[in-house]
Write a structure and sequence with these properties.
This protein has about 675 residues and is of the alpha+beta class. Helix content is about 30%, strand content about 30%. Helix 2 packs across helix 7, helix 4 crosses helix 5 and helix 10 packs across helix 12. The chain starts with a strand and ends with a strand.
């Protein structure tokens, strides 16, 4: 067995790798430029900067945005949808609510396939799962003929009430396999999402079919490349839920990897919350292209049973992440006389103007360089030398359109970007009844620590934590998580009609299935566990809240209904600001999540500094349009116990931390930098 536990995270600009040395007990981070034409090149380059040979690796996990990018950029495969005859238009009818009431230009989200690519198939089950009409197998074979003749890359199958009885969907797959072969991508709605709500379940199957071939091809190519380099252990993949799966399982259920990349940072935030004894954290990840916000509450990531991307719903367990187009590579531009930043990004190629790769548009990174907040000679650990004159030229050209000099334009770009990011944080906190001032802000990503203190000031947050390897923190977080598999079972009962014995039996069955599923992931029996929850709503409500259970047999307790109603009421009060204790409730879905522990790299503790002095330089940096003498410090020169006051710039190989005037920095035993106002 090897000695390194390794994680990899591909971003829009950089590919990050973190390795934990089991023998030395230390973490190391590396990165290389992302290679959009062949992502495996960037992965292998970053890996080679830390590990001499893949044969030295004992555990490997990878976060990928292949599926997400395919969805956002609409470059998935052509999908044919098979739907129950008589309700084949459900996918296009979608839902009626207008999500932006006062937007005169609002349009319903564009489906991933046109009406002409939906095939009605005879056959019907009732709501209780009984067969009302047999499957029209001839229609399925005719659909397979269309696939062959019209170049479809995948088939999605979404039949009515398949979550109660999947026989027709399973038989449809058998027929399609006979006609199209075993390698062709077929997504069944009851496997993509075994839950009620026909539109959402069908949408989940369509998204999985649309992105699945892209994800499968990428994972197969990456596995092949790593095997050729000498990797001897299974490749694992981060899931949207914050857990991991083997790459083989991920290929079978590619929908689960859709938010694979961003959730690594939230998993890292949960591990950091325990290490720092700070149970409530706002995690902000600012990379080259996007800005992601997530929450850790009471030491655990906030996970939702559904997600919506580009207006398309998906029923799957997913870490609750809010994403906007604001990153270091976000382009600044003028519209109607006003300054805008993003969502367009310069990406990795050509990148910001200061990269010298042909980019001419000003970006957030260019603005920070003009203000002196980035070390041009040691950006990304010296891997990239930044061109200050190119940055000034790009920013000055933008400033001319607005009547601003180059410094004013640069600060304007940063201020607009900060305002957008602060609003994104409010969306996931204030709009949900959460007070951000009760949280600490954890900043990571290559550009996150550059803007974090400014965001905290705007939101009234007192403490900012910049962890070790902030630019590779998502990769670090992937080493802190476990195998995870989610199971659900529709279960519709009003509280007065509930058979508590039957509910306990259903949970026991889910528990057995969940624990058994971990055997295929190589998890020893003694390291398997499962937790349970139930979706609850008030009678006549449409949407639910997921209420945790103490155990699978908790429904057998005499006071179960009273206890679960109280838990639901407390959650409803927290989420919506009101509750109605005593009102009838309805159970909708039973949920069981299995966890398997494959070991993890513990948070490293660092010896304190023997003295307060540390190496530093003083340079001029612009804050509030005034150049001020500013401390420049290498992160590697800081040890626990070191403190200093802003203005200061902390540079390292994976990120740059900007500390404006009026703030104090302390390095702690985990290697994190804690930034707080001097007034505290």
């Amino acid at each position: 067995m090897g000695r390194y536990r390794v994680s990899m995270d591909i971003g829009g600009t950089f590919t990050d790798v973190v390795a934990y040395d089991d023998e030395g007990g230390a973490f190391h981070a590396g990165k290389s430029s992302t290679t959009p034409k062949d992502l495996t090149e960037g992965v292998l380059a970053a890996l080679g900067s830390l590990v001499q040979s893949p044969g030295d690796i004992s555990f490997m996990v990878h976060g990928t945005t292949q599926g997400l990018n395919a969805l956002l950029e609409r470059r998935g495969v052509k999908v044919l949808l098979l739907a129950s005859a008589g309700s084949e238009d459900v996918y296009h009818i979608a839902r009626g609510p207008r999500t932006r009431l006062y937007d005169l230009h609002f349009r319903k989200p564009e489906p991933l396939l046109p009406l002409r690519d939906i095939v009605p198939v005879g056959g019907r089950f009732g709501a209780d799962g009984s067969e009302l009409q047999p499957l029209d197998e001839a229609a399925v074979r005719a659909a397979a003929e269309r696939v062959r003749n019209e170049g479809f890359g995948a088939v999605a199958v979404g039949y009515l009430f398949s979550y109660k009885n999947a026989a027709h969907e399973l038989r449809t797959r058998e027929i399609l396999r006979e006609e199209l072969g075993d390698e062709f991508t077929i997504s069944l709605s009851h496997e993509a999402a075994k839950e009620w709500r026909e539109y959402e379940r069908t949408s989940s199957a369509v998204v999985e079919a649309y992105t699945g071939p892209v994800v499968r091809r990428y994972l197969s190519r990456l596995e092949q490349s790593l095997d050729e380099q000498g990797l001897t252990v299974p490749l694992h993949v981060m899931q949207s839920s914050g857990g991991i799966l083997s790459a083989e399982s991920a290929r079978q259920r590619p929908l689960q990897t859709l938010l694979s990349g961003p959730v690594g940072g939230t998993a890292g935030g949960a591990a950091l919350a325990k290490a720092l004894d700070r149970p409530n954290l706002i995690c902000v990840d600012m990379g080259g292209t996007s800005f992601d916000v997530s929450l850790v509450v009471d030491g655990e990531p906030v996970v939702s049973p559904e997600a919506t991307l580009e207006g398309l719903p998906m029923l799957m367990s997913v870490v609750d992440i809010h994403t906007i187009g604001a990153g270091g590579g976000s382009v600044a531009w003028v519209e109607a006389g006003g300054l805008r930043v993003g969502p367009q990004s310069a990406g990795a190629d050509p990148g910001p103007a200061c990269y010298g790769r042909g980019g001419e548009q000003p970006t957030v990174t260019d603005a920070n360089l003009v203000l002196g907040r980035v070390d041009p000679d040691w950006f990304a650990g010296g891997q990239i030398n930044l061109d200050l004159e190119r940055a000034k030229t790009a920013v000055a050209a933008l400033g001319e359109q607005l009547g601003l000099d180059v410094v004013q334009a640069a600060e304007g770009i940063c201020s607009v970007a900060n305002a957008k990011m602060a609003q994104a944080i409010r969306t996931i906190t204030v709009s949900r009844g959460i007070e951000p001032r009760e949280f600490a802000l954890v900043a990571f990503g290559g550009a996150g620590p550059m803007h974090a203190v400014f965001l905290a000031e705007e939101l009234g947050i007192t403490d900012v934590v910049v962890p070790r390897f902030p630019g590779a923190f998502s990769a670090w977080g992937m080493l802190q998580t476990e195998i995870r598999k989610d199971f659900s079972e529709p279960y519709f009962f009003v509280d007065t009609d509930l058979d508590r014995t039957d509910m306990a039996a259903q949970f026991a069955s889910l528990h057995r299935d969940a624990i058994a599923a971990l055997s295929g992931e190589g998890v020893p029996e003694e390291r398997r566990r499962a937790v349970h929850a139930v979706d609850v709503r008030y009678v006549e409500q449409e949407y639910t809240l997921t209420v945790p259970m103490e155990s699978a047999d908790e429904p057998l307790r005499e006071d179960f209904l009273e206890v679960i109603a109280q838990r639901f009421g407390a959650q409803h009060e927290s989420r919506y600001g009101h509750a109605n204790l005593g009102a009838p409730i309805e159970f909708v879905t039973l949920r069981t999540t299995a966890f398997g522990d494959l070991g993890r790299a513990e948070t490293e503790r660092i010896a304190p500094a023997p003295q307060q002095e540390f190496a530093h330089q003083v340079r001029g940096v612009v804050f509030d349009r005034t150049e001020q003498e500013t401390l420049f410090v290498r992160r590697d020169d800081l040890l626990p116990g070191h403190t200093f006051a802003g203005p200061a710039i902390v540079v390292e190989s994976t990120a740059t931390t900007v500390v404006p005037p009026g703030h104090q920095v302390t390095a702690d035993e985990t290697g994190s930098l804690v930034v707080c106002s001097k007034e505290q």
